[in-house]
Design goal:
This protein has about 475 residues and is α/β, with parallel strands linked by helices. The chain folds into three domains: about 100 residues, Gyrase A, domain 2 (2-Layer Sandwich), CATH 3.30.1360; about 140 residues, tRNA modification GTPase MnmE domain 2 (Four Helix Bundle (Hemerythrin (Met), subunit A), Up-down Bundle); about 160 residues, Rossmann fold (3-Layer(aba) Sandwich). It is built from 15 helices and twelve strands. It has a six-stranded mixed beta sheet with strand order 3-4-5-2-1-6. β3 and β4 form a beta hairpin.
């Protein structure tokens, strides 16, 4: 139920992911031999004013000369207007801008070129076909440009993830957070931790090797202990962020719940009969710049109907997973048994609510109350008044919901960089555990304690990409678009 409120909150349709693909006749298999030069359409597909086709690799200069009448490569990073032609037949293809980016001063660190052509499908297809006919060039795979930038040290792994998040950002808060990560804030923080850990490990190994000599200053081991303890406290503090970054990246879970017929349902089955809504309808929405997954659930009540029982069970499952609950009650029916039961079990303290779940109580159908009359029920928790029919009170509900989302997602513009992926949390947690084992091992064997510090440093390296794991890289880059 609650379809009217769900429709009001959802607003216009959300934007789609910016992905492109090559024409079907191209093969994505790498060429044999040395490092191939890749090419792809990097702007969106479909008719547009300008399309950008880019290359990266040692044959990029050959591609520029092959598609133009130029005898020498153009001046770096200066747009040059030229007629593009087929390298085999010299047939004119289009007139467009060419930009030349010699490595290592390019996005990928390799020689790169860009062809800015008219965005008609026939023009794009012809230019891609011409590039494919040049020896040493092949179509790029998804995320391959960014992968080469990472492999050539132009981006850290956390910056790569920030770039991917920026491409797919659909709300203002997601854009701001992704931009901070792309600018390297999380990577720089982890790099600082890694340098501290490396220094502590170096001092510990020096103590192990030379503790019997007179060349070491006093208090070396105590300094290592203090450093490790301080680093562990810093990591634990960073982990205690209530997973705000992951909610900001993926969307906070907002559940609309209440007894039957507390809302109005023009989107689904329209009926005054309670229990006609039996499933959960979900939609990704942008609420005040924050991403939210809005779950519209079945009315909560006891019912002999097996199908409705399943709908209620699913609604209760969503409640258990919710970050924010939009608790909806009928303002004209607050004294009913179903409303009292909902207030006692879901809204008021002592119910199934948890500290991580925030509840916003909304009284709907205020348009059915006599003019000037307020809902009658003593000791109601703080609440908002709303009419889904007239939309009176909707702005106040949205403003309150935005404040709740800002609390569970955090402010992406302030404070230290936040963890946006489960991968980040896993490696920081594993690093903390290794530092904890250092405390336990140092009393038995300093060599074992040093090994725990090495393990902690490896986990930080995995987080930033300094220690590579190919399976992790495959997961990260497969979500990128072709051409990026």
């Amino acid at each position: 139920m609650w379809r009217r409120l769900g429709a009001l909150l959802c607003g216009p349709a959300q934007s789609t992911r910016l992905c492109t693909s090559l024409p079907k006749h191209y093969s994505s298999r790498p060429t044999s031999g040395g490092r191939a030069t890749i090419f792809a359409l990097s702007s969106g597909q479909g008719k547009c004013g300008v399309a950008v086709i880019r290359t990266s690799g040692p044959a990029s200069g050959t591609a520029v000369l092959g598609l133009t009448t130029l005898r020498a490569l153009p001046q770096p990073r200066v747009a040059t207007l030229r007629l593009l032609q087929d390298p085999g037949s010299s047939e004119p293809l289009d007139k467009g801008l060419i930009l030349w980016f010699p490595g290592p001063h390019s996005f990928t660190g390799e020689d790169c070129a860009e062809f800015h052509v008219h965005g008609g499908p026939a023009v794009v297809s012809a230019v891609l076909g011409a590039l494919g006919s040049i020896p040493g060039l092949r179509p790029a795979e998804a995320g391959e440009f960014t992968k080469r930038a990472f492999q050539n040290g132009k981006l850290s792994l956390t910056e790569v993830e920030g770039l991917g998040d920026l491409i797919h950002a659909e709300t203002e808060a997601q854009r701001r957070q992704a931009l901070r990560q792309l600018q390297g804030e999380l990577g720089q923080l982890c790099q600082g931790w890694g340098e501290t850990l490396t220094t502590a490990l170096a001092h510990l190994e020096a103590y192990i090797d030379f503790s019997e000599d007179d060349n070491l200053e006093e208090g070396v081991l105590e300094w290592v202990d203090r450093t490790v303890q301080g680093l562990r406290e810093a990591l634990l503090a960073h982990l205690q962020d209530a997973r705000r970054g992951q909610r900001l990246r993926s969307g906070a879970h907002v559940v609309i719940a209440g007894p039957p017929n507390a809302g109005r349902r023009p989107v689904a089955i329209v009926s005054p009969e309670p229990g006609t809504t039996r499933d959960v309808v979900e939609s990704a929405v942008d609420i005040g710049g924050f991403p939210a997954l809005l779950s519209d659930t079945a009315g909560l009540r006891d019912s002999p109907d097996l199908v409705e029982q399943e709908g209620v069970r699913r609604a209760q499952d969503r409640l258990a997973q919710a970050d924010v609950v939009l608790a909806l009650l009928d303002a004209t029916d607050l004294a009913s048994a179903s409303s009292r039961h909902f207030l006692e079990t879901v809204v008021t303290p002592g119910g199934p609510s948890t500290p991580s779940r925030r509840i916003l109580l909304v009284l709907n159908k205020t348009d059915l109350l006599p003019e000037g009359m307020k809902p009658r029920r003593p000791a109601l928790p703080p609440h908002l008044l709303l009419s889904c029919k007239t939309e009176a009170g909707l702005e106040a509900v949205l403003a309150s919901l935005k404040r709740e989302l800002a609390t569970v997602c955090g402010d992406p513009t302030t404070g230290p960089p936040i963890l946006t992926r489960a991968r980040h949390r896993h490696h920081l947690q594993s690093c903390c555990e290794a530092l904890g084992r250092y405390e336990q091992s140092k009393a038995r064997d300093l060599a074992l304690a040093a090994e725990e510090l090495r393990a902690a440093r490896r986990h930080l390296g995995h987080l930033t990409g300094q220690t590579r794991a190919d399976d992790v890289l495959d997961v990260i880059f497969r979500d990128f678009c072709i051409g990026k």
